[in-house]
Amino acid sequence: MKLIRMLLSIAFIAFLTGGILTGCDGFINQEKPIINENPDQGNQDIKDSEKNAPPTEKEQTPNQDQKDQNKTDEKDNPYANAPKVDPTEYHEKAIQVVAEPNDVAILVNKQYRLPDQYEPDDLVYPDVPFIFSEKVEKRKLRKVAAKALEKMFAAAEKDGVYLAGASGYRSQSTQVTIYNNYVDQDGKEKADRYSARPGHSEHQTGLSIDVSGISAECAVEECFADTAEAKWVADHAHEHGFIIRYPKDKENLTGYIYEPWHIRYVGKELAKEIFEQDITLEEYYNVAIPVNENK
Ligand SMILES: [Zn+2]
């Protein structure tokens, strides 16, 4: 009788603890995931909902696009789980900090930002002319981009085109000042179309530079697009590992108006691919959704 009572109480305790432990295990193994407990859950929801979304214009031309899609997947695309949001606007909840800020193929835009106060540790002064003489921060670039820029400027000279740097690296604190000045001048909505918020500027990567002709005429201005220098840069930058980061009529994908002067080092292989396919870095990583240009 004693034995039976003992067995019964052991069974009862086992039932109690087992029940509790199963609950824990269930949670740990995510057999019954609790909504909002998993930080990736939100992204998964967006991805799942997209599976049922009607095909976009891009998906209706399968051959080349399918190939591109596979290519990006093969490379273990670090931006594959991007929530799909209007790329022309900042979406506080969708903003993600890039995991590898030193990667030359890094994507920085309104959705992806650099770690707070990120500063590359290999900034150098490229040996090329600038439209100013001071040896200041904006004259710097990361070493790999600086070397490529020197080769690009030398190649341009051979074709009788004389380029100059206008603005390279920019620290986060400099961007704070610049952005705030633009907001004071034009208001936030307009400023967001041409100036990045601190942490979101490609200039902070040390891989981007605004270029101009040596005369500085039309430097960082719309009229640069019509110069011989702009034409040369558009045709040849990719041969040296640079892309025109904000191409014409792609604001709905990049989030920024056309900037023929803003080039970004991504490495020769990637630059060639982006140039030949006539796509943006957002399209390369398949994170861009086209938005209504008239909005
Ligand atoms: Zn720029």
The total of beta strands comes to: 8
Largest sheet: 4 strands, antiparallel
- Count of DSSP-assigned helices: 10
Give the cofactors and ligands: zinc ion
Shape: globular
Helix content: 25-40%
CATH architecture tag of the largest domain:
2-Layer Sandwich
Counted up, domains total 3
- Strand order, largest beta sheet: 5-6-8-7
Quickly name the level 1 CATH class of the largest domain: Alpha Beta
Query: Under CATH, the topology of the largest domain is which?
Result: Muramoyl-pentapeptide Carboxypeptidase, domain 2
Query: Could you tell me the strand content as a percent range?
Result: 5-15%
User: What is the succession of H and E elements?
Assistant: HHHEEEEHEHHEHEHEHH
Through-space gap between termini: 82 Å
Radius of gyration: 25 Å
Pfam families: VanY
Organism: Lederbergia galactosidilytica
Protein name: D-alanyl-D-alanine carboxypeptidase-like core domain-containing protein
GO molecular function: peptidase activity
Question: Could you please describe the fold and organization of this structure?
Answer:
The protein has 295 residues and is α+β, with helices and mostly antiparallel strands. It folds into three domains: 1-32; 37-74, no CATH class; 82-284, 2-Layer Sandwich (Muramoyl-pentapeptide Carboxypeptidase, domain 2), CATH 3.30.1380.10. The chain is built from ten helices and eight strands. The protein has helices spanning 2-28, 41-51, 62-74, 143-158, 172-186, 188-194, 228-236, 251-254, 268-277, 281-284; strands at residues 96-97, 112-113, 123-124, 141-142, 163-167, 208-213, 242-246, 259-265. It has a four-stranded antiparallel sheet with strand order 5-6-8-7. A two-stranded parallel sheet has the order 1-2. The chain has a two-stranded antiparallel sheet with strand order 3-4. Helix 5 crosses helix 6 (188-194). The chain is globular and about 45 Å long. Bound molecules: zinc ion. It holds the Pfam family VanY. Residues 139-268 form the D-alanyl-D-alanine carboxypeptidase-like core domain. Residues 32-87 are annotated as: Disordered. This is D-alanyl-D-alanine carboxypeptidase-like core domain-containing protein.
